[in-house]
Amino acid sequence: MDRLHSQLARFEDAFPGFRTEIAEGSVVATPVTPHHGRTIHQVWSSLEPQLAPEWGVTSDVAFPFDEENEFCPDLAVIPASEVARNEIACSPDLIELVVEVVSRGSIHRDYEVKPRRYASRGIAHYLVLDPLAGHCVTSWNPGPDGYRGRDTVPYGPEVTIDSPLGRLTLPTAGLPVDPRSRPRP
Question: Which run of H or of E encompasses 160?
Fold first, then answer.
């Protein structure tokens, strides 16, 4: 892409209360629930103070990967200078850590589609928080077909991420769990 351009800009006001992305060529709108928002808030509040000043956190900003995939991660750690620019879209090559919070409509994308795309772009760490299953999945060591390392940790203990950003810890004991949740393998 000569110029970073968000295809999602044209859908900006079309789906209030939904998070909109382009995945595998389809526009996908996922409803946002209180548990989803609360998880994002708690993770952001935990991660941001641990980052060096040159890094910042952003949410729901478009990251155009290609014509078929434009993701709006729940949280992405990118250079603070890019956060300060306040653009609607950023290059995925800026992402050092990406966090997705699973919702009923995003299970396939968060566990299957996004890890392949994020890893293929060299994003060092991918963190999935799943209020439906009550666990956190950490993925690292990106390769062309996905992440080569992966751990699933039930909510409760702190999760540690050893990354180029430093050693980050995320408390999971207070993260919300959907009352209808069923553990997922």
Answer: strand 159-163
